[in-house]
Amino acid sequence: MSRKPYQPPMPASWWLKHPAYRFYMLREATVLPLLFFIGSLLYGLYALGQGEASWLQYQAWLQQPWVLALNGLALLASLFHAWTFFVLFPQVMPLRLGSRTLPAWLMVSAQWAGVLLVILALWWLLGGLDAHQ
Question: Do 129 and 103 share a domain, yes or no?
């Protein structure tokens, strides 16, 4: 007959007791505003397929203050998630050039430069701020 090992009860707030766990939970919670953003995009695709009236209704919905606020929160959450990923990346996968390891600051800076290049390329492809002309 085998016995189960003792497992002390764990309260639901166990993660609040240590800063590293709180930070981890905050990073994982960044998915919530992103789910709203993805849902907004899917709603937009659906509205686009339903015709002009539905598309105009979708555009009016996007301009509501609470939708703008949640989309702004999604942007901040995605930037926070990217920052934590970029900072951890050199620790998980150090890059070597010959016998030398690239400094972490250089790898993080290169990743942010890549993000900036993608933003600028998309801005250029979409016509910058004069997209309505």
Answer: yes
| Residue 102 within a domain | yes
CA distance 95 to 5: 43
The reply to whether 108 and 67 lie within a common domain is no
Domain hosting 110: range is: 94-133
Over residues 52-87, the pLDDT tens digits come to 999 999 999 999 999 999 999 999 999 999 999 999
Please state, in angstroms and as integers, the Cα–Cα distance from residue 131 to each residue in 61, 68, 125, following that order: 21, 20, 10
- Dump pLDDT digits (tens) for 96-108: 888 898 899 999 9
Q: For the beta carbon of residue 94, count every other beta carbon within 10 angstroms.
A: 12
Number of domains, the chain: 2
pTM of the model: 0.77
* CA distance linking residue 37 with residue 71, whole number of Å: 6
